[in-house]
Amino acid sequence: MNHPIRVAAVILEYHPIVGGAQRQLAQLAPFIRSEGIDLRVFTRRYHNLPSSEVINGVPVTRLPAPGPKPMAGPLFIGSTLRALHHFKPHLIHAFSLFSPLTTAVWAKRFWHIPVVVKILRGGRLGDIQRIQKKVNGGRRLASYRRHVDRFIAISSEIQGELTHIGVSAQQQLTLPNGVDVQRITPPGHEEKVALRHRLNLPKGQLVIYTGRFVPAKQLPQLLKAWQEVQRHCSEAHLLLLGDGPEEQKLRDMNPQRVIFGGRKKDVTPYLQAADIFILPSANEGLSNAMLEAMAAGLPVIATAVGGAPDIIKHGYNGWLIDPQSPEEITLALLTLIRKPDLMAQLGKRARRRMTEAYALENIAAQHVSLYRSLVLQPQSTVENGSNSYVER
Fold first, then answer.
1. Beta-carbon neighbour count of residue 234 at 10 Å?
2. What is the pLDDT of residue 71?
3. d(Cα 76, Cα 78) in Å, to the nearest integer?
4. Contacts 24+ apart (CB under 8 A), 339-346
């Protein structure tokens, strides 16, 4: 193939709408394009955003999907298929098992091109279990098994779910999220002190959470545990960065020494200014916020859900807790706050884990290798467990 491989990344939302999947794609896409892949993003059009623009060198096409949810899905699929007809991709990378993958499967039927899907979340609220609960969910999953060339699992939890629903090992690829370890680095002591001053943050131990204020993150549970922490460590502060529908509920709890910092375009300096990162989620895929905190050299306290157990070895490079136990949140925070040497060890090992296995450019290179292997290989069918396509 003499011309660049064209890849259509289909995702329901994209920058400036920010979530874990959106942030990860936005970070990976420039690296992928720098390797000669013509990757373009196709997404829904929201909030009077332009129908097309280039963001950090990545072309983005936004398609209309007006009306209530039952209508918006089919309209998005139809408009995206028309846009894909003009782009003529060699491969489609869908993000989630919902409208993006439905679009990709229809495109494969029309144009016989390979399809890759990234499962965004596992567990009780994850992609697979949500599909299973839908009308004809079993038939949809059976269709996906026939037509999808690679299911990307970002955690062993998702890998297990794929195996459980009958996805063959040949169709699975474990490919975690990545983090920019060149941009996000641990600060020196003087730099941390300067950041605290510049960001108007208090002295003493600073615990940080970054992300959405939504039920799945279990922030009310964190604040209840924080009340107990305050009884023993009254000089510690908790910084909550983000926004969401639960913000007022959290404020109404009137927590002591809790700072609501709002949503930040770049949380890196706040991570570098903090001492401990906490993620109390009920379920996750593979948290980009957690990866960034580890890259910044922070000791991480995280619930043992999603991809966290794949990355964190309890007591070695982080601290895992039960998602249903506020008492474990309290114990973990008090343990680390009282043991600065342990905090330092966990943070150094967390940083090393990120540089060795989760560097963004390495994860992008694995995507490029996957795309090339599927587009440039000879021919075949997915139905029998093999993949093969004629070069377009």
1. 10
2. 80
3. 5
4. 342/299, 343/275, 343/276, 343/299, 344/299, 346/299, 346/300, 346/315, 346/316, 346/317, 346/318, 346/319
Tokens of 351: 């940083």
SS (H, E, C) the chain: CCCCCEEEEECCCCCCCCCHHHHHHHHHHHHHHHCCCEEEEEEECCCCCCCEEEECCEEEEEECCCCCHHHHHHHHHHHHHHHHHHHCCCEEEEECCCHHHHHHHHHHHHHCCCEEEECCCCCCCCHHHHHHCCCCHHHHHHHHHHHCCEEEECCHHHHHHHHHCCCCHHHEEECCCCECCCCCCCCCHHHHHHHHHHCCCCCCCEEEEECCCCHHHCHHHHHHHHHHHHHHCCCCEEEEECCCCCHHHHHHCCCCCEEEEECCCCCHHHHHHCCEEEECCCCCCCCHHHHHHHHCCCCEEEECCCCHHHHCCECCCEEEECCCCHHHHHHHHHHHHHCHHHHHHHHHHHHHHHHHHCEHHHHHHHHHHHHHHHHHCCCCCCCCCCCCCCCC
Domain boundaries along the sequence of the chain: 6-178+359-376, 189-357
> Residue 334: which pLDDT band, with cuts at 50, 70 and 90?
very high
Q: Render pLDDT for 131-182 as a digit per residue (tens, 0 to 9).
A: 999 888 999 999 999 999 999 999 999 999 999 999 999 999 999 999 999 9
Domain 6-178+359-376 identical in fold to domain 189-357? yes
Q: Which CATH superfamily is domain 6-178+359-376 in?
A: Glycogen Phosphorylase B; (3.40.50.2000)
- For 189-357, CATH number out of 2.70.20.10, 3.40.50.2000, 3.10.620.30, 3.10.180.10 equals 3.40.50.2000
Percentage with pLDDT > 90 across the chain: 86
